[in-house]
Structure of Adenylosuccinate lyase:
Amino acid sequence: MNLSALTALSPLDGRYAAKLQTLRPLLSEFGLMQHRVQVEVEWFIALSDAGFAEFKPLSEASRGLLRSLSLRFSEADAQAIKDIEKTTNHDVKAVEMWIKGRFQGHADLEAAAEFVHFACTSEDINNTSHALMLKAAREQALLPALDKLLQQLGAMAHTLAALPMLSRTHGQTASPTTVGKEVANVAARLATARARIAAVPLLAKMNGAVGNYNAHLAAYPGFDWEGFSRSVVEDRLGLSFNPYTIQIEPHDYMAELFDAVARANTLLIDWARDVWGYISLGYFKQKVKKGEVGSSTMPHKVNPIDFENAEGNFGLANALLGHMSHKLPVSRWQRDLTDSTVLRNMGVALGYALLACDSLSRGIDKVEVNAAALAADLDAAWEVLAEPVQTVMRRHGLPDPYNQLKEFTRGQPITRELMQGFIQGLALPEEDKQRLLAMTPGSYTGLAAELAARWKA
């Protein structure tokens, strides 16, 4: 059976493949190979600039040729490396050999070929490549997806800032809010989560087999290898240097990053469930698209599938991200290989997160508020004014306000007439009494509208 969208084991490469086109070249095996080539090339060029008698500075033409190996890296190049790996049974060594093979016909490069991968262990190449992959995925895919959601939520918060809505703490009627304020709450949480994701430093090391520059100093004892490695990591690759490692960079920053992504996913699960509930209550309606079917047997249905898909895929992402964040910082002694197989699933974990963001975004675009349902729900919940009435009674020292309202409202249907009749009988200053009599569930929203209207990322 040939591999296709229909035969792929993962829905990320099958049913949903088209939605992950941005991520695929960044976190796939192809992406890993391309970044390995980039790292090997930058290390090689840096060595030529280090002042070693045996390796003179490369010409600009040679530098351009070398950098083009990663900039123009193709699927054919990746396949060529895989073909070499069939013999070496070692992926990084295959990259080294492929690069050396590109030197043919270039005398200065051929003469310096043994400085490719000089003093490096495979993890010097892999850890920097993984950090570059995550940097690209964060900048080009993950943060833009969250920014799109923030833009949508911000627009909703402002547009619906003053539209009153009945709150439902514990699922029961509670002090009213506005639709915009509830959306602003989510946007504020997501903005904080997004900032945490963006702030995680991406660390890398290039310090040899066990992190001590052993081979480096054996070749050039008087050279500042730590400073040199730092300059390659920071100045040439744009990452943050980690000076204390074993054979592997210990992946603590990855755990921090994956935990930060999982926190964003979790709060978006919370939002997806809330919207699902609001659709169920009739607060939100879903736009109908001609030709779509909601149920195979019930023609009337328009199911909230985008929010359900988002919830499911965020959950899958968090299961993988959680395993990665717990597993990756743990390595037996100076290293074991359990991190390698796990790291190959970074694209799967972040792929499910991006797929969920896409579903959520499409779901948001499809919903519109049902103002009539919101108003009807509020008008049927005059009991929520028990809170402001008993609070004003407390201010003026009336006896046992809480219990008076508890006996009056708890477990009983309260209408406008009943609530206003209760207020009329209170010994309150006339100004406060008239203010309470003018109050409705829809007007009792505090600062909700103002808070929603002023929110910005």
